[in-house]
Amino acid sequence: MYKLIRTLMLTLAAMVVTTASAQSVSWKNSVEHLGGDSYRIVLEAAIPAPYHMYDMGPYDGGPNATEFSFTPGEGAVLEGGVEQLTRPERHYDKTFEMEIGTFAKKARFAQKVKLTAQAANVGVRIDWMICDDTSCLPPDDTELTITIPAGATVASQPSATPEDTIAQAGSTSTPAEKTVSPAAEIVPAQKDAAGGGSLWGLIIEAILWGFAALLTPCVFPMVPMTVSFFMKGSGSPALGRVRAGMYGFFIVALYTLPIAAIILITRVVGGDAVTADIFNWLATHWLPNILFFLVFMVFAASFFGAFEITMPSWMVNKTDSKADSKGLAGIFFMALTLVLVSFSCTGPIVGSVLIKSTAGEFWTPIITMLAFSIAFALPFTIFAIFPSMLKKLPKSGGWLNSVKVVLGFIEVALGMKFLSVADQTYHWGLLDREIYLAVWIVTFSLLGLYLLGKIKFAHDSEMPYLGVGRLALAIITFSFVVYLVPGMWGAPLKGLSGYLPPLHTQDFVLGQEGPASTTPGGDARMLLTVDGKKPKYSDFLHLPHNLEGFFDLKEAEAYAAKVGKPLFIDFTGHGCVNCREMEARVWSDPQVLDILRNDYVIVALYSDDKKVLPESDWVTTDSGKVLKSLGKINSYFALKTFGVNAQPYYVLQGRNGRELVPPRGYDLNVQGFIDFLRSGVEAYNKQQ
């Protein structure tokens, strides 16, 4: 459901972007008289929605900052540098691994000028780049010539705004129109790699975990107990409902505020960049991913009954003793008692929610924990308002422990994703696709057997007969297992394509001899470059569907020139879910594969690969920063050459590095992708 919602949202975004009037920034200028022979040139940018423009930086190895190059004519002298009159919004960008500033809707800049003559001209060149939440337009520029003091206004008067419909005297407007590529997935440093997704996806997942926590044996029996206490201990039912509502509020606060406080303290002490950098490290580095995997396994063992994760008894007893006091203090301590007592059941769930959300920005864990705690606390308020509903609740019993065990199986399956991310990014080769699938098949098979009563754990009750509910869950579970089994022989499993290791990591595919990445005609490792050598990085990087290709642009360009074919550039990533979906749902089409295999030379440029290259392959940016890893080098090339920091992003390149047709991003329309490839071939043939 989540993937369907996300796909619909991305498709809608692509339609909006491509049909809207996607124009670049319009610039207006005005001159303000500061007194005497001093003037101020004000440049105002009108930024079309939903785009944002970067501030003046500078950003070493980062995005294209807005730059101004003033050239004073005779009779004019520049005083100081350019000022940003509009305050940029600061945030941490995980693609560039640095804090950046952006402007939305409008931005104003100023340059002071002193005249030594009656009038003078000042030239200015402006360079900028704008992006939205899915892609970036190529860098743009314009040149203006401003006459001083013609049209100058008094400094105290407001300058023109983007909403002004009448231009001031001496002002100039320079629109620059561009075409927006289809929506693509932002690279943001391994958001998908850590197993997270969009914020809405994380919120929905947190809500589901919140409701699941209610069905654990530590929490469920307390629902009628606490609600009955509030109804009996107050002067009236209405007052009881208010107190029960406050009880739910305190539960939400006790789960959310500690997380918010930790993040806020980190932000105040170290700034936004430090806070976001912590989460970025958690989402991308192998060490936290392995730790998260181990934590999930420990949580699963706890749910299976191996041990209890509990708070110290002295803390629980002391808190419970204060819950008898009247007023809000008593309600607060009763909520605190619930949180502490239920920790053995909710602790693993809370940990899972937080780990899943660390792939987002610094505020994402706060939002997800808020969603979890609201779902968790909601029944206490609802049952207080409608106490008759308590009679309809099932009685506590062994079924509660069954819920806990089911959650344990789910924890095992989810934890594998973190190990897979680290394995793919660092090329350890520990968790190939068939091993990953084997673990899932065994895990969900055991879950199905447990639901049927064939497996029992220490705290399970006797099950004299099989209920309809358990039977339905068992049918769903075994159906999922049956769906997974063909994947062991190379079935694409498109429904899970974004979350499984790539098919090329599989050692055996039915109908092929040898590894999945081997074909009778050879694969990327068998393809030779112009110099007769194996392509660079083909020992650890591979293309899907047995396609042959390269992983270094220069090699690919040389080979394309040799064989006389256009170049298909695939900006991709190991942790890019949308990339895997495109490969599984679009690239797998026979027509697409035929065109890619016969009409193009393919080069895949991974932007998140951690492989440190030999010094001879290092790249120095324009700002002097040395890029050493393959992923950072490819990301820098994508931004510098095409002005994008998005994945997937497909470029069809002809002779002399010329783009054949407008690039294409994430779009599951197979026929549209076929037309895109064919149009590139036609454009290439016309170049001859």
Provide a concise account of the structure shown.
This protein has helices at 2-19, 199-214, 222-232, 237-284, 286-303, 313-321, 327-341, 343-357, 364-385, 398-426, 433-451, 468-484, 553-563, 577-587, 590-599, 630-642, 670-687, and strands at residues 26-35, 38-46, 52-54, 67-72, 76-84, 89-93, 98-104, 106-115, 120-128, 130-131, 140-148, 153-154, 185-186, 549-550, 567-572, 601-606, 619-620, 626-627, 646-647, 649-653. The protein is built from 17 helices and 20 strands.
Set down the secondary structure blueprint.
Layout: H1 2-19, E1 26-35, E2 38-46, E3 52-54, E4 67-72, E5 76-84, E6 89-93, E7 98-104, E8 106-115, E9 120-128, E10 130-131, E11 140-148, E12 153-154, E13 185-186, H2 199-214, H3 222-232, H4 237-284, H5 286-303, H6 313-321, H7 327-341, H8 343-357, H9 364-385, H10 398-426, H11 433-451, H12 468-484, E14 549-550, H13 553-563, E15 567-572, H14 577-587, H15 590-599, E16 601-606, E17 619-620, E18 626-627, H16 630-642, E19 646-647, E20 649-653, H17 670-687
Parallel strand pairs: 1-12, 14-16, 15-16
Antiparallel strand pairs: 1-2, 2-8, 3-7, 3-10, 4-9, 5-8, 6-7, 9-11, 13-19, 15-20, 17-18
Helix pairs in contact: 2-8, 2-9, 3-4, 3-9, 4-5, 4-7, 4-9, 5-8, 5-10, 6-7, 8-9, 10-11, 11-12, 15-17
